[in-house]
Amino acid sequence: MKTSARKQFEGEVVQLTHGAVNDEVTLRTVDGLDIVAIITHGSAKTLGLAVGKQAFALVKASSVIVMVDVSKNQVSARNCIAGTVTAVTTGAVNSEVTIGAGSAQIAAIVTNESVERLGLAVGQAATAIFKASSVIVGVES
Q: What would the DSSP string read from start to end of 37-95?
């Protein structure tokens, strides 16, 4: 499957918590990363999600926040993936910052001002953060 989302995580549903309106889905990738998504109960039902089912999670680069010198317990976002900056591509206003965590590469679009302020450069430790509500879950049809 091809999409415009910059990051596609493939894995297995390892936890599914049903709610009246929304369900919380935890997807574990082959690399052992846990990606948490909040989707409607109706969507979870339509997708046939269940523990053990193969699925994928999509995250747009514009939904990813980059932080340095932060730990997972300091932010409210459910998805905090610590890694190392592997690339910085500078544009006129924004830059694309790629953070590598194991074999996962997570792209984020941030302002050039933020890149400079945070001192983002290849080899620097950084954390990719995105809310569970920013994650799209899908299954192969």
A: EEEEHHHHHHHT--TT-EEEEEE-GGG-EEESS--GGG-S-SEEEEEEEEEEEE-SSEE
